[in-house]
Amino acid sequence: MIKEVIVVEGKNDIAAVRRAVDAECLATGGFGLSPYTLEQIKHAYEKRGIIILTDPDSAGERIRRYLSKRFPDAKHAFIPKEDASDEREVGIEVASAPVIRSALETLRSEELQIEPRFIWADMTRAGLHGGADSAARRAKLGRILGVGYANAKTFFRRLNTYGVTREEFNAAQEKL
């Protein structure tokens, strides 16, 4: 049983998570979170802690950012887009149980960084922006580091806010 409450976007996501692990889940119902839903999430956050597991798309990222601001000590789990999509949709509900378990084993927490560990030149040197294969490189590196796929700007922010160390980054690059 997972101690924290897992916050997902919808009922189908809850079903997918429950097929993978024994955990309590709450659904945001999309980006229009009701005051009642926010109160439920706040209660879970204060009593047990929460894990934010949103879809690997732009709507999921907006929900994650919104919840992160309200609940700064929340943990984050990421599922790579290619592992959470089929020919019709992208979402946690189409991810397999092993993929969901893997995401929940590599949790990240946001950290306040006075001095960022990474600078934009690190993104350039690693080929993570501006190149023909940059998106694919970010997807692979995001999977290895457990920070998910993101565009270059968001990926850079995740490197600096989710506690990725220089050693982890270098080791992940070597795996590419």
Which labels suit this protein?
globular; Dna Topoisomerase Vi A Subunit, Chain: A, domain 2; metal ion binding; 176 residues; five-stranded mixed sheet; 8 helices; metal-binding; alpha/beta; EC 3.1.26.8
Describe this structure in words.
This protein is of the alpha/beta class and 176 residues long. The protein has 2 domains: 1-110, 3-Layer(aba) Sandwich (Dna Topoisomerase Vi A Subunit, Chain: A, domain 2), CATH 3.40.1360; 113-176, no CATH class. It has helices spanning 11-20, 35-47, 58-70, 97-105, 120-125, 134-145, 152-161, 166-175; strands spanning 5-8, 25-27, 50-52, 75-76, 108-109. It has a 5-stranded mixed beta sheet, sandwiched between helices. Strand 1 (5-8), helix 1 (11-20) and strand 2 form a beta-alpha-beta unit. Helix 1 crosses helix 4 (97-105). The radius of gyration is 16 Å and the shape is globular. The mean pLDDT is 94. Its EC number is 3.1.26.8. Keywords: Cytoplasm, Endonuclease, Hydrolase, Isomerase, Magnesium, Metal-binding, Nuclease, Ribosome biogenesis, RNA-binding, rRNA processing, rRNA-binding. It is an enzyme of class 3 (hydrolase). Pfam families: DUF4093 (PF13331), Toprim (PF01751). InterPro entries: RNase_M5, RNase_M5_C, TOPRIM_dom, TOPRIM_RNase_M5-like.
